[in-house]
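Hi L.,

You mentioned the student needs an example of a multi-chain input paired with its predicted structure. This one should do, with 330 residues in total across all chains.
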Amino acid sequence: MTQLYLIRHGIAVERNNSIQDEVRPLTELGKEKTQKVAQRLKEVKIKFDIILTSPLLRAHQTATILQNAGLTDRLEEFIPLSPGGSLQLWVDWWLNSHYHHDQSTIALVGHQPDLSNWAEIFLWGDTQGILVVKKAGIIGLNLPTSINPIGESELFLLTPPKFFI
Amino acid sequence: MTQLYLIRHGIAVERNNSIQDEVRPLTELGKEKTQKVAQRLKEVKIKFDIILTSPLLRAHQTATILQNAGLTDRLEEFIPLSPGGSLQLWVDWWLNSHYHHDQSTIALVGHQPDLSNWAEIFLWGDTQGILVVKKAGIIGLNLPTSINPIGESELFLLTPPKFFI
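Structure written out for the whole complex:
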């Protein structure tokens, strides 16, 4: 199994007419909560072989907080993690990467409802909208590496940040 | 929504010929991890209106640790939480109790694979074996109160104890 963590960006400045959605930054509270989540992940000795992030500022800032906490040595932007991006593009990337093996641990930082949709597709093949993912919340999936992971994965973690604080 | 927490008993003495399954106690490590889980639930201000527990010793001890941490004022044994028990009996109990309303928070302490099976039935109507629930692990569900919760509930929490320690 590859361990895949899907992490939602922290609390960002609200949408408004004076700022483009792509550059809405995390609020101070959003940074603080994300740092606590990062700290807890560090305490339980999680290390990501790579973090892929949506290029949107609020996601990239979230991923950078995780990196600065020592959770990974490798952080890259991944365009399909933008809102509405394609799960299949990520699966194709994974299948052709050197992270497609049973000891790898990968984090994706992105947006709702895409993250819960992706998780649901991995778990049971379609989207039902039944996973509640708060900002700075985390989904943890075990993806099989010997068969197609769609509809064949396991869920081992779903948590809002409040349990980490 | 009623918040329903499904909590698996902590680590117990292994099965062996010199002890009946019903009276296998928690180990010291099992008690310790369960206490840490209870402490964390207390820190995030969770309070259960009632804890129902399987009558088996390892479950009852787990429920008692939760009660002693101040997480509930009310603890009762509930026979259908024994291994292989009936989800419908619990639903019937709930529908006829004064806990069937949108502000209630209920915890059930029991066994695997029943807890993940019950959760999966609440979430999508049947069992697929895709939720990983460790000992002293927790599943958190939102159950709608205006319609039948089978296949209509949401998952907001799934965590092994290690994130609480």
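You could point out the following to them. Chain A has four helices and six strands. Chain A touches chain B at residues 40, 44, 123-124, 128, 130-132, 142, 153-160, 162-165 (CB under 8 Å).

Best wishes,
N.
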